[in-house]
UniProtKB/TrEMBL annotation:
MF term (GO), any: transaldolase activity
Gene3D superfamilies hit by this protein: Aldolase class I
Any one GO BP annotation for this protein: carbohydrate metabolic process
Alphabetic keyword roster: Schiff base, Transferase
Protein name stated in the entry: Transaldolase
InterPro entries reported in the protein's UniProt record: Aldolase_TIM, TAL/FSA, Transaldolase_AS
Presence of the UniProt keyword Lipid metabolism in the record: no
A Pfam family recorded for this sequence: TAL_FSA
EC number(s) per entry: 2.2.1.2
Organism: uncultured bacterium Rifle_16ft_4_minimus_37862
Top-level taxon of origin: Bacteria
Length: 230
């Protein structure tokens, strides 16, 4: 069971990595764009190499920016060459349901020895097929599933059961995490990994009553110290 950080921000990755609680990092074009990564492919390469080196041997997922077959293959090989721990993220299908990505996923895993994280999935059924195609990771977007009106926990539990039943190697990543509670509930439901933005990890750790208790210990500790010195 593991937590991946869903960010491209170096400072946040360093901060949580130093605590020893990270087991990987995921990114996507939306996150990197919002975080101001610029300079085209060179800019992406520099950031990805930096993160990959920082968290090695834990995996870093980097998403391709196209659905055109040759370009996906080219980017996937390029990304994978940036570090042994780079996993290439590919959406399960194109914007209009085009299915070429599934062939590419299969090809990358079986012929090019590239680890693939199949992403943007909303159901156990999609994830099962991606796992059968050979994906190393299958990413289901739990928050978006919940927003569609059905509970992501049910999908995660069913998916984990069939992956185990058929001995499929894919690890389940649940992303699109909206609430602190999601992290533990999705791991409990059967996710191998949950991805979270830094603020949610901080929310997991910091508790108002713990703050109050620590303040009490510090105040009484100071009184005790004064008494011992007297
Ligand atoms: C997962 O790896 C994705 O980057 C991410 O969790 C998507 O979340 P969103 O629904 O907040 O865009």
């Amino acid at each position: 069971m593991a937590i991946f950080l869903d960010t491209g921000t170096l400072g946040e990755i360093e901060r949580f990595h130093r605590m020893g609680v990270l087991r990987g990092v995921t990114t996507n074009p939306t996150i990197l764009f919002k975080e101001g990564v610029s300079g085209g492919m060179k800019g992406l390469e520099a950031r990805a190499r930096h993160i990959a080196k920082l968290i090695a041997p834990y995996p870093l997922s980097v998403e391709v920016t196209t659905t055109e077959r040759e370009a996906v293959l080219h980017q996937a090989r390029e990304f994978a060459s940036w570090g042994d721990n780079i996993v290439v993220k590919v959406t399960v299908h194109g914007p209009d349901g085009e299915l070429e990505n599934m062939e590419i996923i299969h090809e990358l895993e079986t012929r090019h020895d590239i680890r693939v994280n199949v992403t943007a999935m909303m159901s156990a059924q999609q994830c099962l097929l991606a796992a059968m195609a050979g994906a190393s990771y299958v990413s289901i977007f739990g928050g978006r599933v919940n927003n569609m009106g059905y509970n992501a926990c049910g999908e995660i539990t069913r998916l984990r059961r069939v992956l185990d039943q058929f001995g499929l190697k894919a690890r389940i990543i649940v992303g699109s995490t909206r609430e602190v509670l999601n992290i533990i509930e999705w791991l409990e439901a059967g996710a191998h990994i949950v991805t979270a933005v830094p603020s949610l990890l901080e929310g997991m750790l910091v508790h108002p009553y713990t703050k109050e208790t620590v303040r009490m210990f510090l105040a009484d500790g100071a009184k005790l110290e004064a008494k011992l010195k007297a």
